[in-house]
Structures are given as structure tokens and as C-alpha cells.
């Protein structure tokens, strides 16, 4: 696809998610016909608003696809041992194929210990370091973080050429920036990772054919961050002073410059739960040698 | 350090290795006084020439520092089960603190299985994915691959500023390119990873303040790959037609353009075994709660 041919196209997440769901419905149908129903467990300690919102979306998505779900709601002050005991129970439950642990965990829980307690085969959102290593190694048998994978799926759906292209990732978090960079590298992009210490960030960012913003700073990527004709994927979800959602990119400011840009909301966030569902089905198949 | 002030300096590995060794000798002395002698196990299946050469260097380095060593030489056709049994024995041996497995393994051994058999606490050359994940996550409790770590130690020894600087890594291997990129990212460099599919490689490379070449192609990085005043770290070790060693960088061609460059031989390779020794001591201390 010619990167300058679709100036200012807003590329939404919904068609991407719908296509993934459509294909999953068929896969789940086949599994159910064999007597296997994929099942997702959600482990949530406490009831943070954004966790609940994501949970509602994930449950709805799974329901529509035919994936069973079970939410394990734990008190916010749960002891580490009890949390780990639950993970062990889930690890041993043959009817559960994937598990999502909401993070960040409450303070008393040591993420550095708990992440090893979730068995890699059921770890569908890349909590266990073994899956993280697989993403970086380019080993496709693991489960990348859903948001990072969503970035890739959107670019593929809209037929954005990645091979050899210059991709700049703004942000180096372990949940989005780094894994997204590694997934794009595996697609043979030339990847640059930028962050708060980068000197002359706009110059480095505007050198990219494809810009992925995952910093968590409202509208920080302004027009000077974007090359004429670039494709922009905006992973940020920030709340503005007037209570609206916005991304890391100043969409209005860059819209006349870019060829495509994902909106916030209705962009990357809309694809994440379909990746989650896809990972549950993948895990279910692997665990049942399908 | 001003990147243009030392035009054409050849920066050797030996002073870096010597400094590390010097500090390790003291650390080992203190441990020995407490009745603890750090010990390295080397596991080698077969007797490839480059393995043997590296082994000789590693044994000599350890000896000079006061680290005990034991070489487990296995037949090249050893069965996977036996190889894993040996690793288990080493894992359980309280007198061994670090283990180096020569790779690539012989064909009949499945690296994807064996890498999980080495316990992460003794895995001083980043074979186990748990250590690989730690490198990428920026978790300093693990053990990065010795060669990747050597790149960083050389840059630090020669006081090359990394924060905010543009670093380009040529090569995306899991043993050097990616981990070196991640170590440099943790030092707040702006990191670009290039590879064979990168479009206009010389242009991307010559944009960097610091160029790390880890491709394994003799003298592939010519003058057009290098910015005026850049620092170049040449990780490649290649054998020329006339039987000499050379790096991935055309040293003669770039020497008048760079501010510093590591030679091949006597560059990165000279530092690797001192990092190995450093990791053995670190592992020994961690295992003895020191």
C-alpha cells in the first residue's frame, strides 16, 4: 500500500475486531462439536474502574464468540499465598484454558513472584517471563501482550507494509512499547524505540514511516512528530480535563499530514479483547493438541 | 565525552577486561576468606575449534581471578536425556555457581527443551528464557549474554555517553543484537535495530552516534555506514580468505571518520570472558546471600 495514498484516513479498530471474532466463532464451533469449550478465567483483586470496564468488554466479546468465562473476584487486600493458590488451582483446572490477571496488582502482592506462578500455557496476556521471552525471541508459540498484538493486527488488516519500513515506537514499557517493537521487528520492520530521554524526539519520530505512540501522555505527539504520509497507531488512552478520552497523538493536529491514523477511543482498544479471545482459543487448541 | 574529540581512536578490550578482573580478584579473595570459592562449570558436547578456543580463554581468565572451574566434556552424539541429567546434577551441586553450555548444541539436542533445564540462578550466559526476559525487562538480577554485556562495558569504560544518544544495532540475533539493544535502551539510549531487510541500511546506520555491528558479515559496514565522529563497536568475528580475523566493520575504511572503534581481534572478544567471570562471582554471591 502506498503510504501517501490515503491521507487522513481514520482507521478504526472495529472492522479488525469483527474479522477476528468472525473467524474465532467458526473455530469455537468446531471445538464445541468435538466436546471442547474454550474457557477464560479472569482474576481480579479489588474493583478498579478501568479493570471493570475492560472486564465487561472481555466478557461480552467471549460470550459472542462462544468462549466460557469465569471471574475470580478477590478482596483487594488478599494475601499473596492465597492469590498464588488460586493460580495453582486454575493451572490445574483442565476446563480453563486461559487466564487474565488484572495488573497492576495490589501493593501487598509481589508481581515478581506471582508472574512465575501462572503457567505459561494459560498465560494469554504475557504475564509470565517465559512468554515475554518468546515474544522477543520471535517464537510464535507464546502469547504476546494483547495490546501489543493489537497494534500489529491493525496494521496487517489495513495492509500497511512493514517489511523494511522505518517504525518508531514512542514508549518503552514492558507491557506495550517493548513487545510491540519486537513484534514489528519480527515482521522485518526497522524499529526505533524512543522515550522520555530521547534527544529531539520530534525529529526521531518524524523520520518514521509508521509511528506507534504508547507513552500515556495526552496529545503529546503533535504535527512535528509526524512525517508527511505516515501511518500512526495511537495506543494511549488518557482522560482530558473535560472528562473525555484522548490518545497520545494530537489527532486534529496531524490528521492532514498522515495517511492513516487510529482513533481514540475506537482504535487499538477495540481490538484488544478480540486478541484476548484469540489467545484463549489458541491456548485451548494447544492444550487439546488441536 | 565529546564524540568528535578522539577521531580514529582504536579502543581495545584489554584495559576493560583488566579492570574487571582486578575488581573480581578482590571480590573472590573476600569470598575465599569466608570459605566460599566461586566455581564455573563448562558443558561442551563435542570439540569444535571455536568452542575450545573460547574455553581456553575462559579457563585462563577464571584461574587468574581465583575462580574454580570444571569442564564437562560430552560426546558429540550425547542423548538429550543424558545432557539434561548432567544439567540437573549441576543445578543441585552447591559448589557450582555458574554454568556455560556451548551453543549451538549438536543436532540431536533440542535447544528449546534444554534451555529450560538450566536453573536461571546459575545461567550466567543467558540460555534460559527467564534470564532473556530479565534483560529485556531491564531487571538487573539476571545475567545478560556475555557478549552483549561486553558491548556495554566497553562503552562505559571509555566514557561514551549513552543517555539520549542515537544507537543503531546492526543485527537482530537473540544472542547479541536484541539483548545489546535492550541493555543500551536501559541506559536511556534511543535504539534502532537494523537487519538484512532494512531499506537503505547505510543511511539508517550513519544516522547513529554509536554503531554496534553484530551481523557476522566480514567488513560489511563501510564508510557510508558511519557518521562523522561516531563511536563504533564491532562485535563480528569473521575469517577472511587469507585466514585472518576481521570484524563486521571495514576498519581501515572508517578509521578517519569515527571518533572511536573497537578492533577485531582484541576488541569485544577480549572482554567476554571477564564478563563470564563477573557473572560467576555475581551468581556465587547471590547463591550465598552475599
Commentary on this structure:
The structure is a homodimer of 290-residue chains. Chain A has 290 residues and is an alpha/beta fold. Chain A folds into two domains: 87 residues, 3-Layer(aba) Sandwich (Rossmann fold); 125 residues, Rossmann fold. Helix content of chain A is 39%, strand content 15%. Chain A is built from ten helices and eleven strands. The N terminus of chain A is likely disordered. At the A-B interface, helix 5, helix 7 and strand 6 of A face helix 5, helix 7 and strand 6 of B.
CATH architecture annotation of the largest domain in chain A: 3-Layer(aba) Sandwich
In the CATH hierarchy, what is the class of the largest domain in chain A?
A: Alpha Beta
Instruction: Tell me the name of the CATH homologous superfamily of the largest domain in chain A.
Output: NAD(P)-binding Rossmann-like Domain
Low-confidence stretches of chain A: 1-6
Strand order of the largest sheet of chain A: 1-11-8-7-5-6
Oligomer: homodimer
Major β-sheet profile of chain A: 6 strands, parallel
Count of beta strands of chain A: 11
Helix content of chain A: 25-40%
**Form type of chain A:** globular
Mean pLDDT of chain A: 96
- What letter string, H or E per element, gives the SSE order of chain A? EHEHEHEHHHEHEHEEEEHEH
Distance between the termini of chain A: 35 Å
